[in-house]
Amino acid sequence: MGKGDKKTRRGKIIMGSYGKKRPRKHPKAKVEDKKEEAV
Fold first, then answer.
1. CA-CA distance, 14 to 6, in Å (whole number)?
2. Higher pLDDT, 34 or 11
3. Cα separation of 27 and 5, whole Å?
4. Is there a contact between 12 and 21 (Cβ–Cβ < 8 Å)?
5. Distance in angstroms (rounded) separating the CA atoms of residues 13 and 27
6. Confidence band (pLDDT; 50, 70, 90) for 25?
7. CB 12 within 8 A of CB 5
């Protein structure tokens, strides 16, 4: 267990891989709060 173990979070960080233990963070979509003006 540790830096060389693919099944641990620390091992995934060292190897640069993702999985169940280290999910990717998805960037939040920009929400436009502008309301349509009645013309």
1. 9
2. 11
3. 28
4. yes
5. 19
6. confident
7. no
Give me the amino acid identity at 7: K
Distance from C-alpha of 14 to C-alpha of 27, rounded to nearest angstrom: 22
User: With 70 as the cut, is the pLDDT of residue 2 above it?
Assistant: yes
pTM for this entry? 0.52
DSSP-assigned states of every residue in the chain: --TT-TTSHHHHHHHT--SSSSPPPPPPPPPP-PPPPP-
Q: Are 9 and 21 in contact (CB under 8 A)?
A: yes
CA atoms within 13 A on the CB side of 20: 2
